[in-house]
Amino acid sequence: MLRSDSIADTWPLAELAAKSMDDDMLRAIAAEHQKGRRLFVATTNLDAQRLVIWDMGAIAAIGTPDAFKLFRRILLASAAIPVMFPPVYLDVEAGGNKYDEVHVDGGAVSEVITYEYTLRPFAVKAEARGKDAKPRPKRLFIVRNSKTKPEWGRTEPGLKGITERAMSTIIKYQGIGDLYRIYTLSKVDGVDFNLAVIPGDFNVTRTEEFDRNYMNQLFNLGYDLGKRGYPWMKYPPGLQQVATPKSGE
């Protein structure tokens, strides 16, 4: 482990991506891109310490084998949690020179990406051009695939166990911080904020990172909640208690 760039490997995920994201699927994504739909994926460029937003539909629309290969490698990089999984090295050319860029999970910079990275400049310009037009309601829906409350869990002794627990804790609280940032931005821009997270009473035990039983039960819970009409949170976790006065106050 000390001589490599990660604790685990992502070759099973790479194989799965190659099988699932076949050429027909990428061509279908390209077709939706031409209709105006957008699919954005974020990675972190470790060399530049910057978040990179990839327009996946535009890449798929190129339609070449190299573009399809890049599409799959970006997805792999977006799941490469630093230390836990190996980074993805992307070939780039600048100023006539060729370089390797080291890309990992976008969560190293931002756990949640929304319109501020992709659509906000265009939205501001559109409003400036259409001052006499009837304003359209702006609504933001965030689905955070995580719990936001602390969860007790035994930390396994040793470098691997401590690293895994520390990384999961960092990810949880960075994600919560991102929700506060997005909520503040939504208030500035007059956007209706809506948030969904994993309920605190979902107590299915996960035996490994990609536990199929855990993922299936979580999916069924989300489907059932959505079918019944999901009660979207209007504030980030913890803020609602402060923002909403108690009865009689």
Structural account:
The chain is globular. By secondary structure, it is of the alpha+beta class. The strands form two sheets. The chain has a four-stranded antiparallel sheet with strand order 2-1-4-3. Strands 5-6 form a two-stranded parallel ribbon. The protein has nine helices and six strands. The chain has two domains: 11-108, no CATH class; 138-200 and 211-242, no CATH class. Helix 2 (23-34) packs across helix 3 (56-62).
Fraction of residues in β-strands = 15-25%
Cα(first) to Cα(last) distance is 57 Å
User: What share of the residues lie within helices?
Assistant: 40-55%
Care to count the β-strands? Answer: 6
- List unreliable stretches of 5+ residues: none
Mean pLDDT: 81
Q: State the helix count.
A: 9
Radius of gyration: 20 Å
* Order of helix and strand elements from N to C terminus: HHEEHHEEHHEHEHH
Number of domains: 2
Estimate the global geometry from the Cα principal axes: globular
Given helix and strand content, the structural type is alpha+beta
Main sheet makeup: 4 strands, antiparallel
Looking across the biggest beta sheet, what order are the strands in? 2-1-4-3
